[in-house]
Every structure is written in structure tokens, then in C-alpha cells.
TrEMBL record:
Domain annotation ABC transmembrane type-1: ranges: 78-270
Keywords, sorted A to Z: Cell membrane, Membrane, Transmembrane, Transmembrane helix, Transport
Family: Belongs to the binding-protein-dependent transport system permease family.
InterPro entries (alphabetical): MetI-like, MetI-like_sf
This protein's record includes keyword S-adenosyl-L-methionine: no
Localization terms from the record: Cell membrane
CDD domains: TM_PBP2
Name of the protein this chain belongs to: Sugar ABC transporter permease
Membrane-related topology note: Multi-pass membrane protein
GO CC terms: plasma membrane
Main location: membrane
Organism: Embleya hyalina
Amino acid sequence: MSEAERRRPITRFGLGTTQLLLIAALIIEGAGPIYWVFKGSISSTQDSLRHPLALWPEEAHWSNISTAWTSLDLGRYLTNTVVLVGGSWFVQLFVAVTGAYALSVLRPFYGRYVYAAVLATLFLPGTVSMVSLYLTIQDLPLTGGSIANTPMAVWLPAGAHAFNVLLMKQFFDGIPKELLEAARLDGAGPWRILTRIVLPMSRPILAVVSLLAVMNAWKDFLWPMIAITDTEKQPLAVALPRLADTSNQSLLIAGMLIAIIPPVVVFLVFQRQIVRGIAFTGLK
């Protein structure tokens, strides 16, 4: 479209209207479910069933949130979730950084074969290895012990995330090689180069990988349900579906609201770093 066509009133009107409609559709698609959960959390069960699409309940029950916190024991499940998410985040970040650093900067002679193996795992659905993974946590190689019903059963498998390694490697490949060579000439070893040069320059991608790790761990349902069968140690994503059979609907929706607040806050706080990292890596 030429500049002259853009200046035509009918063209400006059409473009402006289209942009407004697209923005409105994006807002409804993104914020609509969150608002529905919020509305349902302060509504009575009867009100939600009678008027599921109402914009506001007939009578707001703000006490539903505090009641859900105490009656559903959400504090314990939230603590379990934070522990599992924190450990999974650390393990994923550690494996992604060290693996990408070895493949991109250190470059051992067997690196191409390791890189090919990492790529190959992307073509395998997670459910394919779930049985063997469960048997492994039940009977660990060499030690013969079991880490089932412990946070380690979720933390350690989380590290085997090939996409994070490849994403980190792509960013490390963009670091000027001259800078790394200059550091080596100055006597810097691999550990010093990693901590003093590579990591300080990689804050955007660290934010992106951290967000992906936190989001995946927070919403993960299937593997925590299999690895942690003790109901006292389960996270929110596993506990809420289990409580749905015996809990009031309004209290259950209030629990869902409590469950989605932390990841939303994390994104809002670190959105600038996340957007910068996505721009650097070209992540879609």
C-alpha cells in the first residue's frame, strides 16, 4: 500500500477500525478467561450456573477467596508448588547454561554428536519416555534407591529439556568470538569466561528460559501426578482437579484464581527482560 493510499480518508478509517477490532479481540482472548475466573471466584455456585456469561455477579462474595484458602488447604499446596517450580527452574537453567556453553563456546570434538542427540529428543513425545522414567525414579541405577514422592522426582527430569538448551546455544552463538578469544589471551579460563563474560551478556535469554521453565513447571499436571502420589505433597495443578469432586464450585474457582496469580505477577514484573530476550532469539 502506497503512502498516497494511506492518506485517503476511507483507507485510514478502514485501517483504524481493523486495528481497533484486532486489539479488542486480543484483549478479550487474553484477559477474558482471567476475568471469568475472577468473576466466578466471587460468585455463588448458583449464580455461576444461572448466569455463566454475566459480566458481574448478582452479589459479590469476597469471602470465597479466604474460605477457599483455609477450607481447601491451598497454602500447603501452594508451598508444594513453589518448591517444585523453584527446583525445576534451577535445574533447567543450570542444564541449559552449561550444556549450551559446552556446545557453543568450549566445542569439544564430540560436540556435534551430542548436539545431534539433543536435537533428536525434540522429535520424541514426552509420553513415550514416561514409563521408563517412572521405573527409573522407582529404582535408581547404581544406587537402587527410590526418589518417588520427593521433589527430586520432578526436579531431575525437568533438566532434560532440549528446547531450552538449543535456545540458549542459539544466543551464545551470537556472542562475538573475538571477545572470547581476547579473554583467553588474557589468561581467563572456561569458568571465568562463563561467569564474567557470557552470563552478564545473556540476561535477556536467561529471562526467557526462566519464564519458560517457571510456566511449564507451574502448569505441569501429568508427571507430578505420576511421580508424587502422596496427596500431602502434590502441587496445585494436581490438587485442584482432585478437589473438584468434593468441593463447592465457587471455592474451587477461587482456588484457580489463587493458582494463576503468581505466574501472571512473574510475567508482569519481568516482561521487559522477557520481550528483549524474545527479540534477540527470534522466538515465536
